[in-house]
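USER:
Make up one protein:

ASSISTANT:
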Amino acid sequence: MKIIECPRDAMQGLADFVPTALKIKYINQLLRVGFDTIDFGSFVSPKAIPQMKDTAEVLQGLHLSESSSKLLAIVANVRGAEQAADYEEIQYLGYPLSLSETFQQRNTNRSIDDAFDNLAEIQEICQMDGKTLVVYLSMGFGNPYGDPYEMDFVGQFVDQLDEMEVGIISLADTVGVSTPEGISTLYQTLIPKFPHIEFGAHLHSNPATAREKIVAAYESGCRRMDGALRGFGGCPMAKDDLVGNMATENILKVLSELSAEIAINDEALVESLLISNEVFH
């Protein structure tokens, strides 16, 4: 079971800038926990996401030799991908591709068709530089804009990404509209059809419905889940009323109850939760 911790997602919508030194302190502590991957920053326009303008500086302060965790950085265009690919320490480049035309425009300032063209170039960069592309299918379970959505759309997008040889696709419930039934149907359909693709779950939820969604994803064969400690974050480009990330500590608790195999340093996790109070206050 792979747990991806997402401090970038948790921090990016905060109004007050988190000092670079505190970001470094927090992420270094997260690196001790044993998460498979840390989604630590993004190479996007500082005008769009000012909180992440110091991603390159943060990277320089990380103690990676003491951790088995890998690093993921989000990019929104070819320029960002080129920047991220220059850093040997970053293994994964993440790109948000939306099933909603409205959200694609809001999030990356381009159409879905243009985003696919972008992705083809970004995949070339990844393949040339030894990086792995992770595509997040935003609004993967529906959207609040009235844009068309059917589960068949998801399969059509995956078909196109499969042709590009994208090996990791995370279904993102950007605004918390997923249901256990919808989650089960999607993973039970996609995982057998594309056994060579690793499907993840990046679910946003209120605390009351989180457990049933985690159970639905896990029991449907999903073995990659994103979370953020204490459930902070959400996409600032989505809408005014943010729905937070799944709280990582709750994901771990539910998965433990389901007897999932996860190697986590509990002491380091507790310390991370304590430091998170400094970051999110």
